[in-house]
Amino acid sequence: MVDYSVNGSVAVLMVNNPPVNALGHAVRVGLKTGIERGAKDSRVRSIVIIGKGQTFPAGADIREFGKPSKEPWLTAVGNLIETCSKPVVAAIHGTCLGGGLEIALFSHYRIAVSSARVGFPEVTLGLLPGAGGTQRLSRLTGLPVAMEMISSGRHVPAKKAKEYGIIDEIVSGDLLKTALKFAQEVQSRPFKDRCLRYKVVPNADRVEEYASAALTQVKKKYKGFEAPVTCVQAVRSSAELSYEEGMKRERDLFLQLGQSGQSKAQQYAFFAERAVTKWQMPGGSYKTAKPLPVRSTAVIGGGTMGSGIAVCLLSAGLPVYLLEQNEKFLQSGVKLIENIMAGSVKLGKVSMETAKRAATLLKPTLSYDDIKDVDLVIEAVFENLDIKKEVFSKLDKICKPSAILCTNTSTIDIDRISSATSRPEKVVGTHFFAPAYHMKLLENIYGTKTSPEAVATVMKLGKTINKVPVLVKSCHGFLANRMNAPFGSEAIFLVEEGASPQEVDQVNEDFGMPMGPFKVRDLSGIDISWRINREVAKVLGTSITKETRFLGGNRYCGLNDDFYDKGRYGRKTGKGWYLYEKVGGKNAVADPEAEEIINSYRQRRGIVKRKITPQEIFERQFYSAINEGFRILEEGICNMPEEIDISWIYGFSYPKYRGGPMFYASQIGLQRVYDRICHYHETCPYSIHWVPNRLLKKLAENNVPFTQWANHVSKSKM
Ligand code: 3H9
Q1: pLDDT digits (tens, 9 = 90+) for 544-562
Q2: Which residues are bridge partners to 3 per DSSP?
Q3: What stretch or stretches form a coiled coil here (predicted)?
Q4: Among 8, 324, 453, 469, which is least packed, fewest CB within 10 Å?
Q5: What CATH code is assigned to 499-605?
């Protein structure tokens, strides 16, 4: 795992543990042995540590966390490097992260290629750097930079890292050759003063001021997360304690975080995000299917979703034809795109160059003829089957045979849309989440005839446009909206029965959702839910009236309709479930008029308001969604619980530190979840989503561990 060689008077320790040279046990042993050997080797006067392949070590081996730790620990290896009698040079390329950066900070010199990045991403795993990072970085960079870097987990480019003092020299050409030369040059220099443990933290007397500023920042930016706050505390101790005491404090805080539920959930989410890239479907998988090249695109529809999608494509450097049905809509779409771009530049999310390039890549058009040669089309017109079929029929006639035809439908079965074409194998769902330019989830959906090649293309496209793509099998509502349906319905039923929208929202926000369901409805528009309900009724061959209490045999609550009738559409009208300071305002406050609408609705229906506990609010929303999640797994709509959890994290901003609804269920205990679902099945009649799922029952009864759930899932996708 660590190859030892000697070149002239320099020993080279080459870490060879693909793909990211993680510092697992064997690597730690290899580094220890290599340093000891180099120190004793009479030919050697300095030592280079370098990574083979794509990177310098990108951190500790996360797979070892939670298992009994095996010596030598990383800190012991680091101490050996720092106290070595010969100077040690870290030669950095790729991503030098976490434990990797700690090893570099124990080394006496650090050189890097300009494309390298360094950072402490432990915080994103619910941890802090546990091998001296919090004590040593501040000695180099000062407290504010160390606090910010460690609590954010940001990857810092080599050039910036040099400005911070982390990197001594940026080098070009062959890294190993340059490192050998550098290591030779430093052989005659004294290097004790290069050992960070002997340095004092600059401006240590201002630690109180720096820590309080950093804490205010992280509490606001990472609401609910424990690790960022603990990171600041750990860095703070580097200024308040001796080096040895600080290292001990860091170790204690690292262990404390490591045992927390948040860290377990965040580590799970790290691997889950990678697991979902390994997609499979009948007839193909990520291993066998080859994506088609996507060099040009078209978006049909310049509304909110279409414009947002166009922004994603343009930002990734892809040319986009924006197609609309008339000049007015087209201009409005172009304006929306320009506004989103300008906003993103202002917020520093997109560079000015990217925005300028995007403007040249956008081609507004009213003619289908213009898009006949594009590689991929995304339809984002109104959520209506007839309209979508009309669009796909036109696309079928006009687009080149190899073009991939995508639909941004949020609910409609892909087969129903692809039936309008002569090439259903090229038709695939690419469901973006609003706002499309911001939310990271891309729910890709295959129909019964979609080819693995089309799927491979949109999975790759997801990565290209910086999304997290998750593949699901087509059904009504797919994965995310199918689970969101009971979650949202229960929120309204709870208000119907006696809770206030504020109480429901508070429970959700206390759990870590950025916004409660009623604030979300006000944001997305009550008129939108009103219209969706009518579409659902139409599909069911019925209509909704003031008296409707059931839809398709399921409980229906018309409260949303009452708000709609009063013209309260949400933020866009300045009032909805809440009152806002102005039309388009953001500050939601409780509104007596809204309360009046709810009370009169209850009176009309003879509902006696009752007190509902926060626990019931929580369970009815989240457990009904979890029950649906098991149904989705059982039906093979997805392959593994990770696909559900990642969809919630990136589609609905579910708190990462809870892992996702399925992981959360595993932490509560499936038997308890199942029992509560049975309870609500009895107490909340006429809701199919409370019928306890059989897969959940089976897993609960057999106490199946989370990692084995996928083995019990329908194999229909294989
Ligand atoms: C730490 O260092 C603690 C210390 O302070 C103190 C300890 C005492 N371990 O992301 P990719 C796997 S905490 C194990 O697709 P990319 C990954 O699961 C650590 N495995 O590649 C995947 O496996 P598979 C601090 C790891 O090129 C494969 O490698 N460091 C680790 O898009 C490829 O990964 C971090 O948090 C790991 N550390 O991105 C860095 N890292 O193929 C975490 C990756 O089976 N890693 N794998 O699915 C990353 O951020 C990205 O992997 C990286 C490369 C940017 C490096």
Answers
A1: 998 899 998 899 999 999 9
A2: 14
A3: none
A4: 8
A5: 1.10.1040.10
> In the numeric block, which tokens belong to residue 318?
């892809």
What are the two backbone dihedrals, phi and then psi, of residue 336, each rounded to the nearest 5 degrees?
Answer: -60, -45
Contact (Cβ atoms closer than 8 angstroms) between residue 91 and residue 54:
no
Q: Would you call 642 a catalytic residue per the annotation?
A: no
The answer, yes or no, to whether any atom of ligand 1 lies below 6 A from the CB of 153, is no
Q: Which amino acid is at 292?
A: L
Asked if 2-259 and 499-605 have one fold, the answer is: no
Tens digits of residue pLDDT in 102-133: 999 999 999 999 999 999 999 999 999 999 99
User: What is the CB neighbour count within 10 angstroms for residue 547?
Assistant: 8
Protein residue with its CA nearest to atom 19 in ligand 1: 59
State which ligand 1 atom lies nearest to the alpha carbon of 99.
Answer: 2
What's the fold here for domain 614-717?
A: N-(1-d-carboxylethyl)-l-norvaline Dehydrogenase; domain 2 (1.10.1040)
Whole-number Å distance, alpha carbon 20 to ligand 1 midpoint, is: 6
Give distance in angstroms: CA of 65 to centre of ligand 1: 13
For 314-368, what is each residue's pLDDT tens digit?
Answer: 999 999 999 999 999 999 999 999 999 999 999 988 899 999 999 999 999 999 9
Cα 678-411-665 angle, rounded to 5 deg: 30
Q: Name the pTM for this structure.
A: 0.94
Question: Is 61 touching ligand 1 by the criterion CB < 6 Å?
Answer: yes
Would you call 122 a catalytic residue per the annotation?
yes
Written as six digits, the tokens of 165 are 């003092």
What pLDDT band is residue 540 in, cutting at 50, 70 and 90?
confident
What is the C-alpha to C-alpha distance for residues 219 and 150, in angstroms, rounded to an integer? 14
Cα 95 to middle of ligand 1, angstroms: 10
